[in-house]
Amino acid sequence: MNKLLSILAKDLAELEKAADTLHYSFDKCRHIDFTAGLDNDALESFEALTSRFARLSDMLIQKVFRTIDMVELEDAGTVRDRINRAAKKKIIADADVFVEIRLLRNEIAHEYQSETIHVIFEKVLQMTPALLEGVDLTLNYAAGIP
Question: In this structure, what CATH number is given to the domain that contains residue 71?
Answer without folding.
Answer: 1.20.120
